[in-house]
Write a structure and sequence with these properties.
Helices cover 21% and strands 16% of the residues. By secondary structure, the protein is α+β, with helices and mostly antiparallel strands. The protein has a domain of 32 residues.
């Protein structure tokens, strides 16, 4: 059975593990209410809707 001869350095371990954070970037979709981009499974920050109903009230400065 193959066994490593030396322990990997901290730098090597961290370089290998750093790539995992790249794989989990947030995916944006467009809101069905206001068509603004938002992260899936979250409340839309521009209109306050989630799953077809208003969850929070958003104050607009216009």
């Amino acid at each position: 059975m193959g066994v490593p001869k030396r322990k990997p350095s901290h730098s090597r371990q961290r370089m290998r593990r750093a790539y995992n954070s790249v794989l989990h970037l947030p995916q944006f979709t467009s809101c069905p209410q206001c068509a603004a981009p938002y992260i899936t499974h979250r409340v839309c920050p521009s209109c306050g809707y989630y799953n077809g109903r208003q969850v929070i009230t958003v104050n607009t400065l216009a």
